Amino acid sequence: MSEQKKLNNRGFTLVEMLVALAISGIVLLMIGTLLFQGSRYFKTESIKAQLQNELQVMNGKLSQILMEAKTLNIESNDDTTYVYTGYLDNAGNLLVETGTEKVITVYNGRLYVTNSIENLNEIDEGYALSKLIKSFKIEIDDSCKFEDDFGETYYKNPIVVNIEISLEKDDIVVSNSMSVRVRNNIERIGKYEATQ
Questions:
Q1: Could you tell me how many helices (H) and strands (E) the chain has, helices first?
Q2: Among 32, 44, 165, 194, which residue's Cβ finds the most Cβ atoms within 10 Å?
């Protein structure tokens, strides 16, 4: 009887070990894939939340600046956009009358808000409202723009400004559009006068 017990206590065969290893490998691969996908999803959603928070802060700041504007001058070229919300003197300097005059500058993937016109290479990074700008577009709503019988362009208050912003980080893009109704009656938009 003791010999039979010894014969029945053989252990695992090579085939049983290979099957167990294969099943364990598949289970570990599925767990690893699940963890990797979960980690990637968490990173993506964290970046989206960060970009959305940054957009929300920018929208609030830009809305506040534009609602307090007394004049509005938008200049844009291939890689730079300027928005002036105060009066400019003949030399192009921003005249500070009430302290609400601001210069919004979008350059090299950054959006700056300053109290004066700055040399682009000398703007302090502390003025950067965002360093993740992918695209920025600002324009006066077409409903505010009119032409008279002589083909002269003018704008009619209340002025509405449309803004489109896209932020990008790690190939993740979050975009937003908003319209801001300027609270004050604008006297001048660029070289055009505004009427009531």
A1: 2, 14
A2: 165
pTM for the model: 0.76
Residues listed for the chain: 196
What is the SS3 assignment for 111?
A: strand
Per-residue pLDDT reduced to its tens digit, 83-122: 888 777 777 666 767 667 888 889 889 999 888 777 777 8
- For 130-161, give the DSSP string: ES-EEEEEEEE-GGGEEE-TTS-EEEESSPEE
Buried residues in 141-156 as b, exposed as e (16+ CB within 10 A): eeebeeeeeeeeeebe
Tokens at 188, concatenated: 């001048």
User: What residue type is assigned to position 124 of the chain?
Assistant: D
